[in-house]
Structures are given as C-alpha cells and as structure tokens.
Amino acid sequence: MLEFAARFWEFLVRRIDRSLFGIVMALVAVGFVTLFSAADQNLARVGNQLASLVVALVAMWVVANIPPQTLARAAVPLYVLAVVLLVGVALFGVVVNGSRRWLNLGITRIQPSELMKIALPLMLAWYFQKFEGRIGWKDFLLAAVLIAIPAILVKRQPDLGTALLLISSGFFVLYLAGLSWKIIVGLFVAVGAAAPVLWTLLHDYQRRRILTFLDPTQDPLGAGYHTAQASIAIGSGGVVGKGWLNGTQTHLDFLPERHTDFIFAVFGEEFGLIGNVLLVFLYLLLVGRGMMIAADASTLFGRLMAGAVTLMLFTYAFVNMGMVSGVLPVVGVPLPFISYGGTALLSLFIGIGILMSVQAHRKLVHS
Amino acid sequence: MARRSLFSRTRRAEHGFGGYEVRNPEREQFWFRRRLAIAGVLVLAAFGGLVARFVYLQVTQHGHYRTLAESNRIAVVPIPPNRGVITDRNGVVLAQSDSAYTLEIQPSRVKDLDRVIDELAEIVEVTPRDRKRFRKLIEESKNFESLPLRTRLSDEEVARFAVNRYRFPGVEIKARLFRTYPLGEVGSHFLGHIGRINDRDLEKIAEWEATANYKGTDYIGKLGVEFTYERELHGTTGVEEVEVDAGGRAVRTLSRVPPIAGNNLRLSIDIKLQQAAEAAFGTRRGALVAIDPATGEVLAFVSRPGFDPNLFVDGIDPVSWKELNESPDRPMLNRPLKGAYPPGSTIKPFLALGALALGRRTASQTISDPGYFQIAGHSHRFRDDKPGGHGVVDMYKSIVVSCDTYYYQLAAESDIDETHAFMSTLGFGRLSGVDLEGESAGVLPSRAWKRKRFAGPNYREDHRKWYLGDSVSAGIGQGYTAFTPLQLAHATATLANDGVAFRPHLVKQVENLRTGEVTRIAAESTHTLAVSKEHIEVIRSALVGVNKEGTGRRAFDGAKYVAGGKTGTAQVYSLKGETYDASKIDERLRDHAWFMAYAPADRPRIAIAVLVENGGFGAQAAAPIARQVFDYFLLGDQAPSAAPLAPGAPDPDDQSD
Question: Is B72 at the interface with chain A, CB within 8 A?
Fold first, then answer.
C-alpha cells in the first residue's frame, strides 16, 4: 500500500519541475491573499478562483506529461482550430463591454484569443523545427502571415492589447530562432515610421487610452480615472504598505477592476514597496528558471517554446505592472497567476506545463 | 550570395561549413543562449525600471499620493447647529426647529432629472407643486448642492425609499432640521421667517467672516426677529470627518466635533396679548404697537393682514407667493414698521406739549373757534370738523374735543423748524432703533426737509419753498406729515413715562442653553424730553379727559381703569370742500382711523398706537381695539369685547375728532 502510494506519487511528480512549481505556487499564493482583500473577503470569489486553479493544475500536469514532439504534432491542428474559432467570434461572438471576444459554446463561453496565445508560438516553433536549417525569407514571410492572421482577427474584436501580445509572442519565437538583427532593427524603424498611419487605424477608445496614458490628469473622471486611482493606491502604500485588508483605495471602491487587471494596485497599496520588490523578484525567478529550461532544451522546438513561453510570462507581468503603475498605456492584460480569471489561469498553467515538458523530456531526446 | 539570408544562424553555418544543410547542435545552442542572455538583460532592465517606478511612487511621491488617498476617502461634513428657539415673554414657543426627513437630489449627479423624479413619484408622493418648487430651487442654486424635492417624509416613505435606494444614485434621504412657526400667522411680521440662503445672503455671510460657520446651513433668517438676530440664533456648526467610498456614501465616522445650538430668544411680546389684538382687528387692515413705557419693551406688534411664515421655510411655491405679493391688502407689508401714515389729530397732544415747552401757549390761554381758520389775506378756510366751531377753547378742551382751529392758529404762530426740533425729540421723523430691519423714518416736515424732498430739476423753487399753509396743514397732522404706528406708540410711551424715552425693542433676553448664560437686552433710556413735569401733566390730564368726556368717551365707557388717549382720523382722499360721507367714498379712499393711548393713567403700564386703514373715524374704528387690548392686558379679561362699531355708524358723538 505504502509502496503503491510512493509509486503513485512518483508518477504524479516525475515530470514536475520542483523549483518552477514552487515559484509559480508562491505567486498563486500571493494571488489568493490579494484576491481575498480585493474581493472584500468574499469567499465565493476566492472559491471560484480555487476551482479554476484545480482545473489549471490538472491541465499543467497533463501537458507536462506530453513529450514536446507530441506537442509539436498538435501545433497545426491547434493553430487551425484557434483561427477557426476567432473567425467564429467575428461572426457569432458575444459582445461584452463593446468588444466581441467571447464565443458561446452552449455549455460555456470561451475566449479563443487565449487559446491563440499558446497556439501561435506552438505553430511557429513547429514550423521552424520542421524546416530547421533551411530557413529563408519566404519562411519569414510565411511566419509573418501566421502571426498577422490571428493578430488582425483579434485587433478587430477590438482587442488591441491582446493583438499586440500575440504579435510579440510570435516575434519572440522569430527572435529566438535567430532573426537577423538588421531585420529586427528595420522592423522597429518601420513601426516607428508607420505610427502616424497606425494612429488613424485605431478606434476612438484606443486613441483615448493612449492619450490618457500620456497625460492622465486630462480626464481624471473618465478614461484617466483607472490610472490615476491606481497610482494613488500604489503611491499611498508607501514603503511598508497599509497592511493586508487595510487599503483604503481598495476597500472604498476607488480602484476599478481591482480583482482582475488592476489587482496589482491592491497589492501595492497593502504591501508597499517591499511587497512590490518581492513580487518582481518572484517574477524574475520565474523568468530565470524558464530561461534555464530553454537554454538546456535539446531540440529547437523545445528551446523556442520554452523561450517564447518564458518571455511571454515576463511580458504579461511587465505590461500589467507597467500599466497599473502608470508607465504603460492601459491594455487588458491580467497579472500572471495573480489576477482573478479562470481562462487566463488555464493558459498560464498550460504554458508552465510546456516548460515542464521541455525540461522533463530533454534527456529522452538526447539519448 | 544566391539568396539573401534572413537568419544569422544559417549564415554562420554557411560560413563555417560552406553549406546551410550542415547542422551543428552545439553552435546552435550557443547562439540561442546568446540571444536568450540578451533577452535576460532586457528583462532585468525592464524589471529594474519597474522597481524604479515603484520607488518613485511609493517613496518619492508617497506624501503626495497619501494626501490624495486621504482626500479621496475623508470627507469633512459640516453638522449644522440647531437654530435657537424663539419664545414670547412667558415662554410660549413661537419658532422652533424640528427634525424631519427630506428627499434630496443632487442635480449634478443625475442625468435625466425628469425621469428620475417620475420614478421617485412611484415610491413617495411628489405633487406638481413639489416639482415646481424644485425647478425653482434648481434655477436659484448654481453650485452642486443637494436640493430637497420633498420635505417631511413619513416613516413609511423613508422605508420605501431605503429599499429602492440603489436605483437612485444622487438621491438621498437626509435628516434635516425644519423651522416651524406653531402659531402660523400670529405675529408673523415681527417674527419673520427663514428661507434658503441665496447669493445676497452669501455675500452678507462673507462680510461677517462666517462663511465656514454656514457650511451645511441651508437656511438663514430673512425677515423680522429671525433676520435681526440671525447671528444669535444660528449657533456654531459642528464638523464630522467621515470615511466615504467612491460613491460618496459615508462608511464610518472618524471624528466629530458636535455643533453648538444657537441661542434662544425670549421676546418681550406677550403672545396672548398679540392674539387678542389681532383678533380685535377682525378682517380689517391696520397696525397696532403696544409698548411698556418704563422699559421700551414691545408687548404687541400687529400688522394686519399677516401671512403664514411656514410657507417660506421650504421655499414658497410660486402660486402662494403670487397670492401674497399681489393681494391689494398687501399682507407682506410690515405696517407698524414701514407704513407711514398722516397722524391726523393724534399729533395734537404732542404739538400742545411743544407749545407749552416752547412758551407759545399756556394751559389756560384760550382762543375763540368760529369753526374755521383763515390765513390773513387768504380766502381759503381751514375748516374745523364741527360746523360753527367749539366756542371758547383752552388747551385741555382743544385735546378733549380735538379742536382743529386751536392747532391751525398754533401752527400759524409757530415756526415750523422750531416745531420740527421739538417733535424730533419725541422720535418723529427718525428711526426708533427698534430691533427690526427696514424701519421707515416717516416724515416730520421742516423747511430743510421740503427743500431736500423737492430738490432736482423736476421741481421749481416755489415747490421747495415753505408756505404758511404747509405749517397749518402740519398743525393737525396732515399735509406732508406721516408717522409710522411704531413711532406714534413710541412717542406715546415717552409721554406716559414722564418724558423719559426708551429704545423700543422686541427681544427681552438671549439665552445660551449650553452655558445657561442669559443676556438681558437692557432697557435703554435714550434721552429725556426737555419739558417740565407740569407741562406733561397738563397734556396727560387732557388725554384722560378724552376718554372721559371727549372723543374716546364711548370706547372707554365703563372701563375699570383710567386710560389716557387721543383719536385721530387721517385723510387719504382730499375732499376739496365736499362734506365727508364715508358711505359715498370707495372703501380704500376712506380715512385712516388712529388711536393712541396709555393706561393706567397714573402709572402707565402700556402705551399703544392703533391704526385701522380706511377705518373711518378713529373713535369708531381704532379706539375700541385699544380698549380691548387694555382690558385684556390690565384685567386679563376678554369678556367685554366692545365690538368695534362699523365705520360710518350714525353716531355724531364719535364723528368728531
């Protein structure tokens, strides 16, 4: 019996990277503590998140146990499925808050752009692995098209933030696959030059957000309200914070979206600079561990996936904290492992599962 | 190069091995790791930047943001103090503050006001009158204050709204203090009323440097004692620091400095006497002022018709306002204070006193009255009211029978400026200094006055010149002469008090409830008339004679006390030689009836002036009112309410004056 238990345990943990898991669970714990406060000690909300966590952990375990090469084989079907679903959203999507982002599947609503966050780098990594060593400009063009299709679909929802995140996840794969520096620099110059043109393509609310970002005081009761109140929350937290459950900005409703995208303001208000630095440190550990896994990966696919997932985790954390603390424009990006929301948690843990899979299966490939 | 390399890795491979088909896993991993390391540096830089931002927000700017967070969450809420209670001299409450619930809307926070009011009307009763009043309030208020839609909600309405409150952002139930005047119209003109603070009031408050103390106060005294004693009644505003949420709702109280209630006022008015006096007027228009001669305390202050001050508290609705403002009876006019009427014969005892004091007449000096007076060289006859005249008339008789010819002659022989100087000392033509706002000085004519009155290009020199005829008219209280009932009562009181004048006042004492401190408004002797006791005695015995055997005889028939008095009938309409016949003249052009009196004659406790607008003869219309007030005051007796005779009743004895 005891032996069975030990073997079962071994079965359970053999593909789990302990340090990665530890770091992630520390972040999750911070998330629950903060959510409890942000939700005004509403246990129902915490319970929901807990249920999402269980689902996400199972998904992580499953993905971690799938060899990277099997994952690679799923790349094309997943990518195609995600594109089909995005087209479905464009045609039959449910409108929430003026954006068409959700698809009603009868039993549940899904957000196909979340699926695409995994499917796009998977697709690109698979492609570069398949044509490894024979990559030419046509491949680059194809990669650009593979990135552009979902990006345009998501941008039309409209969800500029997620579209930019998709583009960046694609870019990370290209970068790690060795995209020439000349082209990288050229791309940035081209984007800079095209900015005025892009400006005209933006929706009013998107322009407003960017303008508000540039000067939040212009519209303190409207679009600038989020940023202004979040800055007040973080700034008033000071070095040691106001203490757990004691954030006045949080508990007197001044902070909007405080369970989801702006949860970091709650954390910053209640735990202060010390808490913020510790949180950034946790994310740094997460990124560091992810990079170690990527560096040690034995296949190109493994390297690209692990690297892209790691850089995406960094990007989410950076963009979210940047927007909440007022250095980046407000885009709808949750804080990884901390913001409330099941779908985001699921895709994050799938990403962690991929990292674990790459880490766990590298020896097998070597041999 | 045949094809352009886009990927540096393959280019390196070409260089190293001469063909891109050749792969070198170690080199690939090396290049990959280099790229990863570059990304790692960027990650560190980005996180470093974030930490720098946090340090900026949480250390450098901490003070700034802490202040912002505090001002976000802490609202300083003023707690308006309870306004002082006003009572009469015996403690009967005339004005008090009650707590009641109001339904208030902050128009700035409500988008579709009409829709919200319609929805509210389903929960609480909202009458069209409430809506109109609310519209008016919105027009009058510029700032973002919350305005009452409904006042005095029932408990049930409060409960119903509380359940539906979530549906109405910007709408709240507030407990407010309401001013009520339990006696309604009684004494409305001296009591006045409060009303919502307007821009002019705000300026006045700023002048007092009391702007902070009026935070949270919506009402201010507008009229009467409520106005004059505003600063005593208001009290000191308290402060509550409350924590509010983003919706502006109070979550909890952080600190509280309680308000200090305003001081209570005890008036010198005897409200029962006031009620008796008002009742004696019936539906007639007029004024009555009763003063305690020994102190200047005003015992009754009547202006008929009155108004209900309660109407003004919540802001009067336009219909009621129109009604009050446009009524020909002018209920808003404070007649004893602001109404200046020709005094008629009531001026005679004062002119006689002046004649004694200035040496123009002795008490026993007589004239022969042919029934008229003519200025030498003029044909116009200033007629006496008794055809054929009163025969031989001395000073006593001149007052008792109210002989005009005696005073025509006196006036013709006197200098108007000298008369003016003496009469001024009795308070005529001057402000009495009563503690009510808007007092009229009336007119006590003099050469200088006429010059000033007819100054400017619209008048010629002969308009400005003083004529003997002007003096003669003034000699019987007609012509330019006009006194307020308050002035006449004041002069009567001075006469009754042996020439010692006291400033008339309505507030007896100011009571501070918290400290128990009582500030008495001291009887303030302003001056003493420059007349001898004997001279005053001559006049007073004649005034007693008026009520015994003269024009006041019928009104004071059977009185259990001795009262001095003098009737007066003031012309409103110039007869131009016709005989006055009240029944033939439009009611509003009939003469004003006057009566001045004091009692008891030996040690007067009350001095009074009564005016009945268009009442006809003073003896018929005004004297009986004085009799009723004296009876009530001196005997505590309302029974022998000698019903004032209707004007024009055919009794020749009363029709002399």
Answer: yes
